[in-house]
Specification:
By secondary structure, the chain is α+β, with helices and mostly antiparallel strands. It has helices at about 5-20, 25, 55-70, 85-95, 100-105, 140-150; strands spanning about 40, 50-55, 75-80, 120-125, 155, 170-175. It starts with a helix and ends in a 5-residue tail after the last strand.
Length: about 180
């Protein structure tokens, strides 16, 4: 098990490598996200990559996807768990393409602050739109999620005008716990 101080040093090192200021943590509205000790394998994502989730999140995702399918709504996994290093690499690729760190951090949480680190967040896709685009909000999958996801413990993390200042992500849902 990684110690909190070691984790924070790892995050600081990843931030420094990306040029994220030392004041990020003090100014960030997102909480530091802790990597779980145990993740379980899920189905592969839509790109064929292996994915992992926390066990309860995977069980809830499976039940939710099956319930949607019984109502004729198809949805699929685009991404799930991401390590802080993976988040670093994702941001580094965008920096290499010439994007500014400020623009990137409006769309992607810095390493250590992504809900994907918890193994409870997933990006969801639907067959009738390009993945990770706002057009997901126009799909039957999104409409179904908006009505039913709470029953399975999921909520959309970044609606329009969210408190964290992260761009609208209708595809990003996080398992918290099922509604009573």
């Amino acid at each position: 098990m990684i110690q909190a101080a070691d984790y924070e040093r790892e995050i600081e090192s990843l931030h420094k490598a990306l040029g994220i200021g030392a004041d990020y943590r003090a100014n960030c509205l997102l909480p530091l996200q802790i990597v779980p000790e145990l993740l379980v394998p899920t189905e592969a994502d839509c790109f064929g990559r292996p994915q992992q989730l926390a066990e309860a999140a995977f069980q809830a995702w499976t039940a939710m996807k099956q319930a949607a399918a019984r109502q004729g709504v198809e949805m699929f996994l685009v991404s799930a768990y991401r390590s802080p290093q993976y988040q670093h690499d994702l941001i580094a690729k965008k920096l290499a393409r010439g994007q500014s760190i400020e623009k990137i951090l409006a769309v992607n949480a810095a390493p250590g602050y992504s809900e994907h680190h918890t193994g409870r967040a997933l990006d969801i896709g639907a067959p009738d739109c390009e993945v990770l685009t706002e057009e997901f909000e126009n799909t039957a999958a999104f409409q179904w999620l908006a009505v039913n996801a709470g029953r399975f413990g999921f909520s959309m993390s970044y609606p329009r005008g969210n408190e964290f200042g992260i761009a609208y992500e209708p595809w990003h849902w996080c398992f918290r716990e099922a509604d009573p």
